[in-house]
Amino acid sequence: MDDRVRVVIAEDSVLLREGLTRLLTDRGHDVVAGVGDADALLRTVDALVADGAPPDVVVADVRMPPTHTDEGVRAAVKLRADHPGIGVLVLSQYVEERYATELLAGSSRGVGYLLKDRVADVRDFVDAVVRVARGGTALDPEVVAQLLGRSRRQDVLAALTPREREVLGLMAEGRTNSAVARQLVVSDGAVEKHVSNIFLKLGLSPSDGDHRRVLAVLTYLNT
């Protein structure tokens, strides 16, 4: 499979937009458009789709002109509704639970929410862009923690052990079972057992593919 992805960047800061473009193109990806406001983002994606050349993923700032409040995330939500096959990765300065919850509502396929100040590794960021483009998830741990904390399914989550909740949080970040095992310094088999217990307690049928399991958990937590 060609690892190269087609990206649209929506960021009103010219320096940041150009920096993201350079970062991604230097690693072999195609930045097919860069825009500075939400309206331009929607028009650009619609035009690319109409031309038969849709992007694989959109990287968008949460706050964009003219009010710098929620234009970016509103555009992201609309894109997910209008073009569900296109991944959406939003960047934010803070964990804004309302925006994160709205973005994750419905299908959680191909979605990411990262905090700008916590992206400390360029490779991790690029990996997140590719993962979302391929239909996976990329959620900052702080976002996961707050979503789990405010979940309306606390009665069900209460059945999980502390370790299972920890595993669930790492899964929701988009980590594979092997990555969870490395983070917790346990065996892959131990993680697989925790994952099986999580799905059993949440009443979810495990499916093949780590991302599908993660997405099922996220969808369940946000319904």
Account of the protein in words:
Residues 6-131 form the Response regulatory domain. This is LuxR family transcriptional regulator. Keywords: DNA-binding, Phosphoprotein, Transcription, Transcription regulation. There is one protein chain. This protein is an alpha/beta fold and 223 residues long. It has 2 domains: 6-140, Response regulator (Rossmann fold, 3-Layer(aba) Sandwich); 160-222, Orthogonal Bundle (Arc Repressor Mutant, subunit A). 52% of the residues lie in helices and 13% in strands. The chain contains 11 helices and 6 strands. The protein has helices at 14-25, 38-50, 71-82, 97-104, 122-133, 141-150, 154-157, 162-172, 177-184, 188-202, 210-221, and strands at residues 6-10, 30-35, 57-61, 87-92, 111-115, 137-139. The protein has a 6-stranded parallel β-sheet, sandwiched between helices. Strand 5, helix 5 (122-133) and strand 6 form a beta-alpha-beta unit. Helix 2 packs parallel to helix 3 (71-82) and helix 9 (177-184) packs across helix 10 (188-202). The protein starts with 5 loop residues before the first strand and ends with a helix. The mean pLDDT is 83.
What distinguishing features does this structure have?
single chain; 223 residues; alpha/beta; Rossmann fold; Arc Repressor Mutant, subunit A; six-stranded parallel sheet; 6 strands; 13% strand; globular
